[in-house]
Design goal:
This protein has helices at residues 2-15, 18-23, 26-44, 48-53, 55-61, 72-88, 92-113, 126-141, 146-161, 168-182, and strands at 117-118, 121-125. The chain is mostly helical. Helix 1 (2-15) packs antiparallel against helix 7 and helix 8 packs antiparallel against helix 9 (146-161).
Length: 183
């Protein structure tokens, strides 16, 4: 049940980042992301007042293996979206949608239905990777041309499936936003 709660929170929480990226002025976004990153960093470093303030989120959404660095994945997520915004401005919306939808569905499908491990990454499944591609393709098709949605989804799903040392919450929005800008 934890994975379902985590992925639903991930889906809606990440999608909410579209609002500042699309509607807020550049300087407000810089301030917003820098404050969010600073607060998240202090949570990762276990700063007691912030641990207490965000304790309910940690208790309900953090995996046990991440409790020594609570919020580390959300830190990478915010950093990935922030860097995407700095580098690609409004194209960061494509990275946000891809990360929110693709990562949520790949995680759920891989966790509950994944049976075939990828030969190049035993931590990922074919079912999860296909779910990433299909779900992000459908979501991106709502905001861009189908061919562009296909290319962004396909390449992002591939990058997400790679056994990289970098967290996919950092790499996926950067890659997706870059591809969107190039198209």
């Amino acid at each position: 049940m934890l994975e379902l709660k985590r992925k639903l929170f991930h889906l809606f929480g990440v999608l909410s980042l579209i609002v500042p990226v699309w509607f807020f002025p550049y300087r407000i976004n810089l301030l917003f992301f820098l404050i969010a990153l600073a607060i998240n960093y202090l949570v990762v470093k276990r700063y007691p007042p912030l641990l207490k303030l965000f304790g309910v989120f940690i208790e309900h959404f953090e995996r046990k293996e991440n409790l020594s660095k609570p919020g580390i994945q959300s830190f990478y997520l915010l950093l990935g979206v922030f860097l995407s915004y700095l580098l690609f401005q409004k194209c960061a919306v494509y990275g946000i949608v891809t990360l929110a939808v693709g990562d949520a569905f790949s995680g759920l499908v891989g966790y509950y239905f994944g049976k075939r491990k990828l030969s190049y990454n035993p931590n990922k499944t074919l079912e999860g990777t296909l779910a990433f591609f299909l779900s992000s393709f459908i979501a991106l098709s709502l905001i861009t041309k189908p061919l562009e949605a296909f290319i962004i989804s396909f390449l992002s799903a591939f990058v997400e499936s790679l056994p990289l040392k970098l967290d996919d919450n950092l790499t996926v929005p950067l890659i997706s936003s870059l591809i969107a800008c190039l198209l």
